[in-house]
Design brief:
Blueprint (H helix, E strand, L loop, with lengths): L1 H15 L11 H10 L7 H39 L9 H10 L1 E6 L25 E6 L2 E9 L6 H4 L8 H10 L13 E10 H11 L12
Antiparallel strand pairs: 1-4, 2-3, 3-4
């Protein structure tokens, strides 16, 4: 009678676990992705250098995009006089905000600068219009650097950096010279390199950028109907 008694005790449990009553998780893929994102991952030196390039590209492209937007607006509002104070992309809000997130500092240098603070001797390769190479390095354990050419890619820039008397009205150039007496940044043509972007980044910012760029992201499911 004892085995029969045990069988009778198990009957309610078996009834409570019928397949049609088991609740299945509907977001198992999302949970798996989230679990993978929380795994401790070892970041190798080559990963940090790759992240430095990603971060440098992101920061310099943001600077160029924001500068074009701001200058177009200011030129329309008040010409070169209104636009001139804003030709400092590293200080513009979106660029500055991203630099803080990346723990980076952004600068521009040229061998034909407008601002003496941006004057530097560039190599022949850095002045080559065909050179679009990104240079990344790790000069210190906690410091990474990024560099790429700064090319005049928008006709809008010719309003201040083109040929005087042709692209730049003489009156406008007088305003430029008044603010920058040592100006050398004219005579450029579309597609010509004007200098280089230089970015320095802290290791923690580079590592965080690598982590965010390599996070797994679930693709949105298409509706069934």
């Amino acid at each position: 009678m004892r085995p029969l008694f045990r069988s009778l005790l198990l009957l309610p449990l078996l009834a409570a676990c019928r397949p049609d009553q088991v609740e299945h998780l509907s977001n198992t893929k999302e949970l798996a992705v989230e679990a993978a994102n929380w795994e401790v991952k070892r970041i190798m030196p080559k990963d940090l250098l790759r992240a430095t390039r990603w971060a440098g590209d992101s920061l310099t492209r943001t600077a160029e995009r924001e500068l074009r937007t701001v200058l177009a607006q200011k030129l329309q509002e008040g010409g070169v006089a209104a636009a001139l104070p804003y030709c400092r992309p590293e200080t513009l809000p979106a660029t500055d905000s991203l630099a803080k997130v990346l723990q980076a500092s952004l600068s521009r240098v040229s061998n034909r600068s407008r601002n003496p603070a941006h004057q530097a001797s560039l190599t022949a390769a850095e002045q080559n219009p065909a050179d679009t190479t990104r240079h990344v390095s790790r000069p210190g354990n906690e410091l990474f650097t990024y560099q790429r050419p700064l090319v005049l890619q928008d006709k809008l820039c010719l309003r201040c950096h083109g040929t005087v008397g042709q692209d730049i009205p003489v009156a406008d150039y007088a305003l430029i010279k008044k603010q920058y007496p040592q100006d050398q940044a004219t005579g450029y043509q579309l597609g010509q390199p004007m200098g280089v972007w230089r970015v320095s980044l802290q290791r923690s910012g580079v590592a965080e950028h690598w982590t965010m760029k390599t996070r797994k992201v679930m693709k949105k499911r298409k509706p069934l109907f």
